């Protein structure tokens, strides 16, 4: 947590405005102010607490009059910060972005691939690019990671960055930026990424056991996320990453023909009966298990909230996806993204996704003198 000064004016009608420039410098995602303190704007409270984007603001002023300067408490993980490479590699973001973009243009499926790769990196040994290391018994070789793709995009960006500023930018930061760029390339909301991660030197297949599995109950999913400092809201929001990309039939075929709960059709009763024939046509009973199906039917290339509308309609693909809706513990959160609950509790998926991604991208980061800056992303130095 760091304190930064932010010029902010709040008038008596409760409308706030920030000095142009100071807000952008701090990398705020959502410029709307949300009141989080329990005292109304026109009441006499000496400290008013507000949320602005990914920041928590505490405004100091005399009761009823909150003009003047505000103190902004910017939530950043220890060690990572905005503009980390401003002097040492100023073009890092544009180099990563243009690399991801050129691969995306010839193969749009790299966007979901990179987003998933970043998630699998962060959940094992922290966001330290341990997923990228080649070799027997590394994370990459483990069962849950065997279908990851997009490694060539990271290698390409790394080569360009080594040419521009040798030995400076970590593979962990490249992957974090590439995940963000994948969201914005698919028309999602972008967000500022605090940087300064260093690369890990340990990558073990056996460490991947704690990755969430599509057969996990909600309780287990919540626990696995909690173990990484992420709450149920982060879980539901981040799994919303399934708004882009595909899954292979092998991961959900049991839901179509021989589900654990016995039904007349043999199918998972939470699947919309009108949707079942469509899924069965895509994944025939003894067909090719590697055939890929959109995780967000009708909108697999666009980063939007339709994934949650599909869940509401019994059109989730993975068992773990649909459970986010059938389990009351997570449904109330998912409902906020479908517009089911109006008013105060309505949340915008894009903004919340960005917020949770900043949290996820800071899991167990190595900074300062920890780890190393790899010369090539596929091997430790
Ligand atoms: C409970 C947690 C999660 C489970 C059980 C899960 C499971 C899966 C599975 C089984 C697939 C299909 C893989 C394949 O067939 O290649 C998949 C794909 C995907 N996952 Fe997740 N996932 C989870 C959370 C997340 C999170 C947090 C993100 C990102 C923030 C994410 C992003 C993706 C993306 C983008 C794809 C599509 C990959 C592609 O098209 O290549 N997932 N996930």
The set of bound ligands, ions and cofactors reads: protoporphyrin IX containing FE
Q: Total strand count, please?
A: 8
CATH class of the largest domain equals: Mainly Alpha
Helix content: 25-40%
The CATH architecture of the largest domain is Orthogonal Bundle
Segments where pLDDT lies below 50 for 5+ residues? 1-49, 51-56, 60-77, 342-346
Q: CATH homologous superfamily name of the largest domain?
A: Peroxidase, domain 2
For the largest beta sheet, what order do the strands appear in spatially? 2-1-6-5-4-3
Q: What's the structural domain tally?
A: 3
CATH topological fold name of the largest domain: Peroxidase, domain 2
Report the biggest beta sheet as strand number plus sense, adding barrel if it closes. 6 strands, antiparallel
Measured on Cα atoms, how large is the radius of gyration? Answer: 22 Å
Separation of the first and last Cα atoms: 32 Å
Q: Beta-strand level of the residues, as a percent range?
A: 5-15%
Disulfide bonds: 89-165, 122-127, 171-377, 249-283
Binding site for Ca(2+) 1: 121, 124, 126, 128, 130, 139
Domain Plant heme peroxidase family profile: 79-381
Subcellular location: Secreted
Task: Name some characteristics of this structure.
3 domains; Peroxidase, domain 2; 381 residues; 13 helices; six-stranded antiparallel beta sheet; binds protoporphyrin IX containing FE; 33% helix; disordered N terminus; single chain; alpha+beta; two-stranded antiparallel ribbon; globular; Peroxidase, domain 1
